[in-house]
Amino acid sequence: MPAKGKHRRPRFLRLPRSIALAGTGGAALALPLMGAVCAHAAAPAAAVPSAVQKITTVSAPAAADGEKTYVVKSGDTLAKIADRQHVSGGWKKLYADNRAVVGGDPKLIRPGLKLTIVGRSAAAGATPQAAELSSVSSVGSATALSVRPAVETATATDTTAAKAAQAADAGYTLPVEGATIGTGYKVPGSMWSSGYHTGVDFVVPTGTTVRSVAAGTVVSAGWGGAYGNQVVVQHADGRYSQYAHLSALSVSAGQTVTAGQRLGLSGATGNVTGPHLHFEIRTTPVYGSDVDPVAYLRAHGVVVA
Q1: CATH architecture of the domain with range 68-126+155-169
Q2: Which CATH number fits domain 180-299: 3.40.50.150, 3.40.50.10260, 3.30.470.30, 2.70.70.10?
Q3: Higher pLDDT pick, 254 / 103
Q4: What is the pLDDT of residues 35-48, one digit of tens each?
Q5: What pTM value is reported for the model?
Q6: Which among 225, 175, 220 is positioned nearest to 201, based on CA atoms?
Q7: Spatial distance between the Cα atoms of 120 and 126, rounded to a whole number of angstroms
Q8: Which residue, among 59, 270, 246, has the nearest Cα to 150 in the 3D structure?
Q9: Cα–Cα distance, 299 to 305 (Å, whole number)
Q10: What DSSP character marks residue 174?
Q11: Hey, is 93 helix, strand or coil?
């Protein structure tokens, strides 16, 4: 019995330092120390887990790149720009962000136009951020870590959708189907006022459907003197296509057309020796600014016989 008025001082159990650390610093920090204590104190092997649970960490996605300005070049389309600039949401997102600049038709963009690029995807240059960390520990040994970067791959669905959008936006076609070229470009001759043939003649019978080789806006449709009934279309790259000697017209000036849309029917109006389609590519809408039409079509992926 303790003496009256005296209180016995309670005895506190001293804990090993490693256990104290485990309680305050977390089990992940205490494991190496516990391994060391067990090695010196000959603690039972069951006191230390034989393996540490696998830990998987995934970092938060990197923030989208800031805005940048892109100047449209000759031959550009919204789909091509969105693909090269890695725009999340593709050409539709790019068009939505620049509708006030582009206008009502996303297919009509001209060289020199300044577009704002926003919402670029992580694939634009950043290395993958996600990684898996595996930790394995044995009794009395330090924890070994291995890092395996996660590989990001585009799904087949995303790839197919991107290609389809680009093909639809950048479509070019022949002005007439199944036709062969009669008189070629720059063939010399006194019958032409310039001294040479300013386009190519596709040999087709009267009444053959004539189509726009690409999307654009009709700048003229009507009588063109020696060219007879003609249509001239302005395209997004700043070039103009001309379709002459038509027997009938299907469009009017100011009208927007798509690639492959019917402009009229072939014929033999104007100064001709027989029915055919006279086709030109120009740098302006008027005579005398012609460039090689076959080379132009081939540069846009069109097969010309």
Answers
A1: Roll (3.10)
A2: 2.70.70.10
A3: 254
A4: 444 344 444 444 44
A5: 0.47
A6: 175
A7: 11
A8: 59
A9: 14
A10: -
A11: helix
